[in-house]
Every structure is written in structure tokens, then in C-alpha cells.
Specification:
Elements lengths: L4 H23 L3 H7 L4 E10 L5 E6 L2 E6 L5 E9 L5 E8 L7 E8 L5 E8 L3 E7 L1
Antiparallel strand pairs: 1-4, 1-6, 2-3, 2-5, 5-8, 6-7
Length: 136
């Protein structure tokens, strides 16, 4: 065998170290990337609901958290609140309590996003409704 085993070990250690530094940079996020991972900031969103039959109660959830509860028997309700609005859009879960013996009822959901665009979707149910709507 030619050469010193200690010299070969030092060369191998240097080669691994040179490869390790770029690998470390690729696998660990920088400060700018970490701030993007936290998600978009909350922005003002306007939500209005119109019903064919006034419900006993309405709950709106975003990411499992309740963002709005309304217990009135009104046929139209609206509210403005802040939610994160990523470029992909959001999903909202609507739980509407119509009487179980009521005829087919409908709810029109209108949402105005932070840029001012308006989206409209509908929910139809006979009895209580639990629906998830996606707004782009």
C-alpha cells in the first residue's frame, strides 16, 4: 500500500465537507423561505348569506376554526372579517340548521375577496346542511 492512511482520511474528510456545505444549504430553509411558509397575512373578506327559508342558526368554519356564528332567524345576513387568502383560494365550511321537517331550502353564499372580486355559490338541503365550499 502506498501513502499514509491518515493522509487518505484527511482527504476523504475534506471531500465530504465540500459536498456537505451545499447539501446543508439545500435542505435547510433560509429566513425568506420561512416567512413564506407561515402563509399569507389575514385580509378583509366580505361574506353574505341569503336563504329561501330562514335558518335557526349558521356556523362558518375556516381550517376547523369557527369564524362566525349567527343564531338569528333572518333571511339575509352578512359580515366582514379577516382571513388569510392565499393565491390558491380558501375553503369555508358552512353548517346551517334548517328544521328537519322543512321543505327543500337553499342558501346563496356571496364572498368578496381582498382584491374586490365577487364569488357566488349555493347550498341546497332538506334539513340541516353541512357543506364545504371552495372559493378560488
Amino acid at each position: 500500500m502506498r501513502g499514509s492512511p491518515l493522509f487518505r482520511a484527511v482527504i476523504a474528510f475534506l471531500a465530504i465537507s465540500l459536498i456537505g456545505w451545499p447539501l446543508w444549504q439545500l435542505t435547510h430553509a433560509t429566513g425568506a423561505a420561512r416567512s413564506e411558509e407561515t402563509g399569507p397575512l389575514s385580509q378583509a373578506i366580505h361574506l353574505s348569506l341569503a336563504f329561501t327559508l330562514p335558518p335557526r342558526g349558521v356556523k362558518v368554519r375556516h381550517l376547523g376554526k369557527e369564524v362566525w356564528t349567527e343564531g338569528s332567524g333572518s333571511s339575509e345576513i352578512e359580515r366582514e372579517f379577516s382571513l388569510p387568502w392565499p393565491k390558491e383560494g380558501i375553503e369555508l365550511q358552512f353548517q346551517i340548521e334548517w328544521p328537519a321537517d322543512a321543505p327543500l331550502a337553499a342558501a346563496r353564499v356571496r364572498i368578496i375577496d381582498p382584491s374586490g372580486r365577487e364569488y357566488e355559490k349555493s347550498i341546497f338541503a332538506q334539513g340541516p346542511a353541512d357543506e364545504v365550499l371552495t372559493f378560488p
